[in-house]
Amino acid sequence: MLDRRKFTLAGLGLAAAGVAARHQTATAADKEFPVTKTEAEWKKILTEDQYYVLRKHGTERAGTSPLDKTYSAGTYHCAGCGQALFSSEAKFDSGTGWPSFFQPLENAVGSSTDWKLIYPRTEIHCANCGGHLGHVFDDGPAPTGQRYCMNGVAMKFVPKAGA
Fold it and tell me: So which residues are the catalytic ones?
């Protein structure tokens, strides 16, 4: 038997699904990138966790990436294609459990709208291969006020020479 509460919750769920369906935009997977590979080729060069995050838009568990607490001088690169993404100079401790930056390197990343949680979020992907990196939020430090909350497994850290 369907009571008023279950009926209301079911209606809200259907309404939310409808909003999400109406507001879907092109994702990184729908775009063409300079580096392209088949799913089999990606699986061959990526670890299972890297494939899950970069190619399937997954998220690693908070606090599991050693890159979250890496503060040496250097550059963070895409684990899929090697594209330089973020400088250590833009990194900060957000307390979220994921590596966070206040800005990417110029032309290194792209974005699309992600509706997976019903409300819109700005998804960040590698501009070179389209790999999913994480999301950007408007609660970061100066000078940008942005927090690029990235999956550490999607990146590789390259220390600055001589550092």
Answer: 149
